[in-house]
Structures are given as C-alpha cells and as structure tokens.
Amino acid sequence: MIKSAQFLLGCVLSLSLLIGSVAYGENLYNSDTYRALASDRRAYRVGDVLTVLVLESSSASAAAGTNTDKGNDVGIKFSSPNSQKDYALGIDENFDGGGKIARTGKLLAQISVAVKSINTNGDFNITGNQDIEINGEKQTINIEGRVRPIDVDEKNTVLSTKIANAKITYVGNGVLADSQHKGWLSRIITLLGLL
Description:
By secondary structure, this protein is an alpha+beta fold. It has a domain at 49-61 and 103-191. It is built from three helices and six strands. The chain has helices spanning 2-20, 175-178, 184-191; strands spanning 49-79, 84-118, 124-134, 137-147, 157-159, 164-173. The chain has a six-stranded mixed β-sheet. β3 (124-134) and β4 (137-147) form a beta hairpin. The longest helix has 19 residues, at 2-20. The N and C termini lie far apart (118 Å).
C-alpha cells in the first residue's frame, strides 16, 4: 500500500507541475512562406530563383544588285563629189555591281535568374548573369525581362522565347575575342580610305 501511495503521490505531483507551469509556443504558420506539401516548387515571390533555357537563333541577310547600260552614238557624214567620208563615234558604258551580307548567330545556355519584383498583374521581373571562364576566355551572359507565371513549367524553368522585353547579352573576353577585331594599323588604313 505504501508503494501505491508513493506512486499516486508522484502522479499527483507530476500533474500539478504540468498544470502549474504555463507553456508558450510560436505559431508555425507564416502566410508569407507557407506552401502546401502537395504544391509544386515554381517561383512565385520576390527572391525566388528560376531557370531560363536560352534557345536563341538569329539570321539576317541582305542582297543588292545594280545593272546599268548606257550608250550614245554620234555619226557625221561628209560628202564631196570626189569622195564620201563617214565618221562615227560611239560611247558605251556598262556597269554591273552587287553585294551580299549574311550573318547568323546561335546561343544555347541554361542560366538561373532571380525574381526581382512582381508587377501588379502578377508578372515577374527577372534578372541574372552567369560568368564562365575556360582556358583564359571569359564569357558573360546577362538576362533581364518579364515572365508570366503561367510560362514557368513544373520544373521551374522558362524558355527565353517566353520572356517579354528580353535583354539577353553574351560577351566574351580573351585571346579569341581579341583576334576578331582589327588591329590599330588596319583601322587607320581603312579610316584613311587606302583599303
């Protein structure tokens, strides 16, 4: 009986300690960061990151041609009883010229960008850049524009062709990029019209 009294006393004491102390807890729910367990992981707020698949291809060409033909003939005839002389002068001018310009470019890349702000209609303003350096060649890709949330797929990616007001720049620096520019002497000769 003493053991059951001690057990009962221990239970009463433990219960009184639990009831007597006040426990405070914070709410674990935060409406700004709440996401349902079954929701996807698409970007939806400022600071979220999404991936842009850059698939850009451009080509331009122009051709011009010119053909001109011009001819003038002048003739003089002299007659005398002893002889008859004909003199003729003819001038012909022909010109045939043409030119063609063709340029193509293709850019394939995958870059992560951040949502910088959200417009009143729900569109995301995004911006991001990526620096890559390979064998001393530094390449930089910058992307900026506006994305509709509906264009972001379930993998949290968007095609660059779906970005409104897109500004995509691709710049390279290094030996290869430098070799594509004329040297200073060639530029001076061209400027003077010698070439």
